[in-house]
Amino acid sequence: xxxxxxxxxxxxxxxxxxxxxxxxxxxxxxxxxxxxxxxxxxxxxxxxxxxxxxxxxxxxxxxxxxxxxxxxxxxxxxxxxxxxxxxxxxxxxxxxxxxxxxxxxxxxxxxxxxxxxxxxxxxxxxxxxxxxxxxxxxxxxxxxxxxxxxxxxxxxxxxxxxxxxxxxxxxxxxxxxxxxxxxxxxxxxxxxxxxxxxxxxxxxxxxxxxxxxxxxxxxxxxxxxxxxxxxxxxxxxxxxxxxxxxxxxxxxxxxxxxxxxxxxxxxxxxxxxxxxxxxxxxxxxxxxxxxxxxxxx
Length: 297
Ligand code: NAD
Description:
The protein is of the alpha/beta class. The protein folds into 2 domains: about 30-115, Rossmann fold; about 140-265, NAD(P)-binding Rossmann-like Domain (Rossmann fold, 3-Layer(aba) Sandwich), CATH 3.40.50.720. The chain is built from 11 helices and 11 strands. It has helices at about 10-30, 45-60, 75-85, 105-110, 125-130, 140-150, 170-180, 195-200, 245-250, 265-285, 290-295, and strands at about 5, 35-40, 65-70, 95, 160-165, 185-190, 205-210, 225-230, 235, 240, 255. The strands form 3 sheets. A 6-stranded parallel sheet has the order 1-11-8-7-5-6. Strands 3-2-4 form a 3-stranded parallel sheet, sandwiched between helices. Strands 9-10 form a two-stranded antiparallel sheet. Helix 1 packs parallel to helix 10 (about 265-285), helix 2 packs across helix 10 and helix 6 (about 140-150) packs across helix 7 (about 170-180). The mean pLDDT is about 95. The site of nicotinamide-adenine-dinucleotide has 25 residues, from helix 10.
């Protein structure tokens, strides 16, 4: 068997086309453009690339975005003051703090300062709690993108054995919660898991987000499984690979995401979706101008 490769680029393009329409519809109905503020502290080159991609993606679908760049020695208090001001700015629908922050910052305090109703990354404790009880407001972007890919391929999640390799707050844990919400039977493995293959071999849906090239090889995969490779690793020769032995796993799985071109394009796309959803929620709840009919009554 040779797995069907899931084309994340194509799915992302379709979702972005829909984003464009939703932005246009907000402009037509409410005369307002959704807005995203991206806060970056210091000059981490990887973060610069990510932020540039996010700003570019916003521009492509018509979201207004602003990049707020602070030097690495800015005080945490100054950044928090700005985050709080954005929290009450009626033209800002999404606030994102690009991680990592300098070591002197307390990430929990900074993320906690984001207005939970604008927390488009979904990392605020309120939104994490919402995810746990199945009352999600902003699903974290990478696992949200994975769910979107599964849905797009009509892969049955309810009742499936799902194994998530990696237990980070950003990918593994929210991924497990989203799969559980969709009634999969979920196991979460991590660096201290004793026999990884014992778990992965049971998976109908295997999501790998460990950041270890070649961690998952063909003998660790169930025949016909769906394998979602979230990992992004740069090899010494410059090549970008995921966490799976791509050639080997491809012969065993029925679906597989390539790296690059699988989950990667979905992450920024779901940030656009969250920002637009935030604007739609806010604007649909805002008091409307009374119609002429209401004024006559
Ligand atoms: P992280 O370092 O925060 O967490 C890695 C997790 O993997 C930990 O829970 C760790 O215990 C586990 N792990 C590490 N080695 C393992 C092993 N040998 N066996 C089993 N588990 C092991 O990383 P993260 O932020 O969750 O990211 C994981 C990977 O996903 C990275 O390669 C990252 O670049 C990639 N990533 C991709 C996207 C995307 O858009 N495609 C987004 C976020 C992260």
